[in-house]
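Interim report, section 4.2 (structural modelling).
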Amino acid sequence: MWSRLGLLLLLACAPAPAQADVRGWIEANRARILAEYVELLSIPNVAADTTNIRRNADRLVGMLRERGLQARLLEGGDRSVPPAVFGEWSVPGATRTIVLYAHYDGQPADPADWTVTEPFTPLLLSGRHSAGGRPLPLPERGADVDPEWRLYARSASDDKAGVMAILAAIEALRAEGRTPAFNLKIFFDGEEEAGSPHLGEILSRHRDLLASDGWVIFDGPTHPSGAPQVVLGVRGIAGADITVYGAVRPLHSGHYGNWAPNPAMMLARLLASMRDRDGHVLIEGFYDDVEPLSPAERAAIAAAPAPDEMLRREFRLIRTEGGGRPLAELISQPSLSVLGLRSADVGADARTIIPASATASLDMRLVSGNDGRRQFDRLVAHIRGQGFHVTETEPSDEERARRPLIARVRDRGGYNAERTPIDHPLVRSVLSAAQAGAAGDVVVAPTLGGSLPLYLFREVLDAPTVTLSLANYDNNQHAEDENLRLGNLWEAIAIAAAVIGGD
Amino acid sequence: MWSRLGLLLLLACAPAPAQADVRGWIEANRARILAEYVELLSIPNVAADTTNIRRNADRLVGMLRERGLQARLLEGGDRSVPPAVFGEWSVPGATRTIVLYAHYDGQPADPADWTVTEPFTPLLLSGRHSAGGRPLPLPERGADVDPEWRLYARSASDDKAGVMAILAAIEALRAEGRTPAFNLKIFFDGEEEAGSPHLGEILSRHRDLLASDGWVIFDGPTHPSGAPQVVLGVRGIAGADITVYGAVRPLHSGHYGNWAPNPAMMLARLLASMRDRDGHVLIEGFYDDVEPLSPAERAAIAAAPAPDEMLRREFRLIRTEGGGRPLAELISQPSLSVLGLRSADVGADARTIIPASATASLDMRLVSGNDGRRQFDRLVAHIRGQGFHVTETEPSDEERARRPLIARVRDRGGYNAERTPIDHPLVRSVLSAAQAGAAGDVVVAPTLGGSLPLYLFREVLDAPTVTLSLANYDNNQHAEDENLRLGNLWEAIAIAAAVIGGD
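Predicted structure of the assembly:
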């Protein structure tokens, strides 16, 4: 087991010498890497956009082949299912096989919400837009490139940055005439942001092709201190769309206000019943299954710098939930978040009506011990406990005639949490390589707050996973104005090269 | 004072003989009236749409002049302020002057919400769309026109129906060589649905021109039984847009869920604190100022058929608010309704974020005794009482740094309630004319649930008002798929002719 002392020693060790060459190569090729990356980001990549998602996949097959790898698409269904992109660099005599994973699809993006550029028209800025960053032309080859510059586009950080880091690292090793320290396989997922509904199918269909000793997942942000993170596990995710109903159509708020039930108000009351003021979830049994952290995991959390104060300043929060307990502790617990609310219109668009329905979307993050199905059922039981008749479809006239309170609950899908033990050989080798490749400290996080379907690799392939989280933490991922700090891209390439090279 | 017996007698009296001619004229001209009305409804009429609102006004001046009236625009500010349309038919020797009012602007309409047609592409259906009504071509002159047919368009009922009824009634009287029983003035308002922010200014500027013995307001729906309503007063309206804030930008719900405050959840809790499950408002002092109904007003309510059971069936409601008390009683009380909710996105568009803010729009209906300013202040005090710092503008970084809970509260504007006594001569003459013009019973309602700025006529012009509500009650006013039952238009024309003719 790792002692806290052991961790601190690892965090403090110096970059390996082999990295000097890689860093030199990156510096010499920054403008070219950037130009290629901008081209990749220009292809819209929402998983549901079949035509464009396949343009991405085809381009990635091409980029792998240009780097001398064998590459192909792995299909998970009909043409509407985004394919995974597979690449391989076989190393004669290698005793281990490692798969590097990143996902090339991105969250949906509404151009109307973006203030800097259109989601798929990448734009380089001299810094964070909200801190006064100004648009810049792409640098000429050999020009100076400031690591603080930021590239704005959907998936600039989540997660085409992972894709690009892997591709550039392969190129760097090729340029230096090196080979991977293992049989290298590449797997670029095409529907991670859609909840990876076909990932299990793809892994099953290509079980032999994907056999390995472990997967290294390139995804997620650095520690808020800026240090690259080696993440042992992720929270799982479950979720629901809840719609409650009033009259069968919107009613004039003057003629019927006080008499017709108001679904927006019903929804408010239902949501308010789910958590107390401090964010503690009031759904019965919500915290029952949580597996406590091990002493070594607790030590890793304690060893990492606590980002809370900095984050509160950054996000302009004077108060956080959980009674002021630290972020690292709180994300090791399951959560329930309202993702959005919608009922009729507000502000200048509001009409003086009692809406016919009101909808909230929720997610529940899961930790080791939780089961998504079980948490979802507890949520539904809570809704029933508040007096609602729960249905999966739009209520019929007959249901409306019998039930005063009706909630339609749609399962948003999801998957369970996953965690690889801190003393697993895969964790040890990746941590060592990350430390060799990184310019500064590396942080070990037992659990990333975000979710990835890592349980599938264990379930379908019996493979452990470890995650490298390298994008700037303030990247606006999943939101408008997503961006990547260029320094984080260079660092990610260096770390990917160290992992592949076995530094 | 009116006794209950007196009311019932009035309700039971028969149409006057002069009406036979008017009804004959309507029947002979239905197709032509309809064609002219479709043309009027085709001009978009949202008050904020300056260009189109003035196209409406100019067309109405033209329609008044075609009927031999003197007509002009009454401006209430610069060109961005919708003008009122004024018309006059002077009657030599007349001792009284009456102004007929209707409004030609309509509620905003999002074409995406409309299922039958576009809001400004009127479509005739063989019945209510939800009851299987099918599109029909406009009838040829002389063709049969079923009174159950419905015309779908924004403002088809609210309130271009009032405008068209007045215009057609004038034409009917001209055709029969009759003159009004008083000096007739016409006033078509152009921003009623925007809360009539300049009506007071227009009335002030043209005080002499608009001098009268009373105003007859053509607006609102019939009693749910289908009977035309003579309405003595209206609820007033106040309202607020409330926005609460979390972090300065949307945050990843995985990385920060449990730690970052969730504004959608804060808003839910705040709204839930405002009313109990039964719709009773919990804001301190909310019911303090209500003037009780007089015995004659109570008698009028008791004399009208109670529509509650029918409405519950129609709206598919098994339970209504207010502990099951009747609608007529509940709308004589102030109300608080959530008009809409908005925070990030829901359903398929939802992203896994903690939203940066959440907004609710509310309205508060006011009754005699209430003051809108006072109710608004009580709402703000309630929000403060829930721990929120209340601001009128987007919170600054400095405010965020000092206040854990911030609510931006925007005043949606509004006006107070107004009621003319049931024994006022204006009420008596209009009720008598309505009864003469109507095919069946007429209902007297002390208070309409909806709001009109009637207090202005009293405040600026010292004029009493009485309202005729004639559109089908199931007209979807203020919502998508607004429609007018044609039988209600013919009835409205007949009643308007009886009012003008002094039947």
